[in-house]
Amino acid sequence: MREGFSGDRTASAGLTSHGVPDLYSKFGLQRSAHHDQPGEHNEGAEMLGRDLVLALASEQAKGEGETFPLDRIRMQKAAFLVSMRGTDELRTYDFEPYNWGPYSGELNTDLRAMAAGDLLDLERRPGHQYPEFKTTPAGEDRANKVWSQLEPREQAFLRSVRKFVTGRSFSRLLRDVYAAYPDYATKSQFSG
């Protein structure tokens, strides 16, 4: 049995049958109808997208023994899962089906701007195709402010999402996300 697909994780652990972290099942919250629909936008989002990125890339989100770097594809999937599985306040980007599943052009633009500025560094890791996003000292300071404004359940959720995306190979991550959200796999180049 493959972990995450066989129902070996329970809702009380905050994971779906596909192993995808879910703030709603973990904390007994009610999900808004828009969370499972591609292209829907939440006008009332309180967190800025860049704040979400910094929170995910920060030392506070990083867990022990991350197997894979928080690279551009894993950041896209992490932000997507936060948008789909988190509270409305965490829904900061809109996603559409694209080459490797859920993709946000706005997130990509923000990542480039923060890497060109003083908030994110790109660090190469041996054996990995894409560099890892890491907060700079200025980015970490801003991320700490973001973390201080999050509720404990949101903090735990962001950590679980980061652990989820950095704990899976590229192919396993895409399979798990596609299994949970097949509508976002319609334009994928992935065949694994």
Quick structural gist:
It is built from seven helices and four strands, in the order αααββαββααα. It is mainly alpha-helical and 192 residues long. The chain has one domain.
What overall geometry do the principal axes of the alpha carbons give?
A: globular
Largest pleated sheet: 2 strands, antiparallel
State the end-to-end distance: 18 Å
What order do the helices and strands follow? Answer: HHHEEHEEHHH
Classify the beta-strand content into a percent band.
5-15%
Q: How many beta-strand segments?
A: 4
Q: Which strands sit side by side, in order, in the main sheet? A: 1-2
Supply the number of helical segments: 7
Helix proportion range: 40-55%
Helix vs. strand class: mainly alpha
Count of domain modules: 1
Cα gyration radius (Å): 15 Å
* Average pLDDT over all residues: 81
Assembly type of the chains comes to single chain
Low-confidence stretches: 1-13, 26-45
Describe this protein's structure.
The chain has 192 residues and is mainly α. It has one domain (46-185). Helix content is 41%, strand content 7%. It is built from seven helices and four strands; from the N terminus they run αααββαββααα. It has helices spanning 23-27, 49-57, 72-85, 105-116, 137-149, 152-166, 170-180, and strands at residues 96-98, 101-103, 120-123, 132-135. The strands form two sheets. The protein has a two-stranded antiparallel sheet. A two-stranded antiparallel sheet has the order 3-4. A hairpin with an 8-residue loop joins strand 3 (120-123) and strand 4. Helix 2 packs across helix 5 (137-149) and helix 3 (72-85) packs across helix 6. The longest helix is centred in the last third of the chain and has 15 residues, at 152-166.
